Amino acid sequence: MPMDDCSVALLCSLFQTTPGEKLVPSTWKSVCILTGSRAFKDLINTYRMIEQDDFDINTRLHTIVRGEDEAAMVESVGLALVKLPDVLNRLKPDIMIVHGDRFDALALATSAALMNIRILHIEGGEVSGTIDDSIRHAITKLAHYHVCCTRSAEQHLISMCEDHDRILLAGCPSYDKLLSAKNKDYMSIIRMWLGDDVKSKDYIVALQHPVTTDIKHSIKMFELTLDALISFNKRTLVLFPNIDAGSKEMVRVMRKKGIEHHPNFRAVKHVPFDQFIQLVAHAGCMIGNSSCGVREVGAFGTPVINLGTRQIGRETGVYLLLSIYFCEQIYGDGNAVPRILKFLKSIDLQEPLQKKFCFPPVKENISQDIDHILETLSALAVDLGGTNLRVAIVSMKGEIVKKYTQFNPKTYEERINLILQMCVEAAAEAVKLNCRILGVGISTGGRVNPREGIVLHSTKLIQEWNSVDLRTPLSDTLHLPVWVDNDGNCAALAERKFGQGKGLENFVTLITGTGIGGGIIHQHELIHGSSFCAAELGHLVVSLDGPDCSCGSHGCIEAYASGMALQREAKKLHDEDLLLVEGMSVPKDEAVGALHLIQAAKLGNAKAQSILRTAGTALGLGVVNILHTMNPSLVILSGVLASHYIHIVKDVIRQQALSSVQDVDVVVSDLVDPALLGAASMVLDYTTRRIY
Fold first, then answer.
1. Is the pLDDT of residue 53 over 70?
2. What is the pTM of this model?
3. Which of 14, 51, 388, 458 has the greatest number of beta carbons closer than 10 A?
């Protein structure tokens, strides 16, 4: 097998527990082929560790091409493929044990498969987050037998059409050593590597490798990591990165910062596995992106700070907060080796070599034509307003492909049935439009628990809409994930993804419509509040003796500047025959509303102008309060009334705001359907793995 530290530990665990105690039958012959990164002199002669455990290294192949870039990795695999056939022809092994997911392991598995040698792959089915995933799964398809470490890995192998009878869930072999290692003498090891003055739990172990699919970013992250470690002023053991593409640049960063000569650092290229176990077991924490931080270190409970994406898909089975891992031993119980040996003994070398795949039944034969390949990734967006119920198919770019509108029913039963009906019809239409629906996002008025997908209680505009679980019926009907949030929050999400808030760290959105709502983006994330009541901006009080508000209070922004408030004032004027001016008329069958008041103001009605000015001033005072409280970099006015208020709001800011916030820009949203786009963004952000 190709040899890295894990492979060495695996080999020693698998075939020998204590010196002189052999677990393999006497008729078996264990042959070791040493290839890969450990063939470099500057990365230590790992073969000495193997020989000390009474193993014969039959062949040492130098297969790694220097260069530490993508081309060198490819050339290394090619060199191994050239050299391995002669070795395998000479040794004629019955079974080849291949461990892990290194690129040199892929060369070994490829050679063995093409030369009709049975392959036992250890640690298949796992997911990490780099090119290692592709290599690991490629080895899985070449292997005849599989030893996996976790239940999830076993399920992944079955999903990959591997024969369940040839899969063993054993646990991680290295855990057999790890779980018995912590009680051994360790202070002498700590002193040897870190100095005589270092105490247990008072030092850091750092191990960071390049991410081959994003080399530039991983080098920058390594530089920031070293800066942070220097600032910690703690004794730190820094291991050199592996030889993947980008490692040369990372070493340059270490030397540029003087890590090898820094008094707080010990920079080393290799630590024997038994000693490394003790060092991480008694460290204050481990930091980096090595898989051992997720796997092996979990056996000891040492806190691990995992950086970047290299292990983003790795199964942790642990409590995770801000990428900090704590102890939970899902990778083994200390009894993997006996299980693997029993599995090896059960292999019938006389059975046919050709492996069989267990393909699941397929219900429908979906043609992979060009239209299917080029389908548009989309979301179903639902907007529950006081008057209308709208459903739209929204593409990843924010294009509304198709929109459906119905009057919002007055009762719960009618409303939920109409939502389901419209969504089912839209999903069916999406297939014809070549849109792949990724999920459903719902924007609704009222207070919403987005974690559970429940409307806690709604505004008076939407009746029978309290304690309503929207997620379950939609998810059960459409078999899609469902997100739900308040309409104001959705407007802010729309601006963050598609509008003028894109790329901004802090901004506030104010919706001016039938009511007044809003959403707050702080440090790129939406603020919900402890009881999901954040950003109820319409209910900021701007006058102690103002008009009554629908919330039960008085003097709120909504009581002055909402569409309902303007409609109330318009009716008063109309009842007193003070609304209509020359050039205006209101049909008898048409209700007087906010638009009539705006029209009258434009035509010179002084009383209408005064009402609008008061409403805009109230909104402006609310914005001033927001500027003084949140200090955002931008305020976005959204909704049908925004353009009528913008100039008054800016005047109020100039007159009332502190000088330090008067330069904050206030703009009118250029999004046509912010509620729908915000609902869609909850789905689309998830598909790009943005935290929501």
1. no
2. 0.50
3. 14
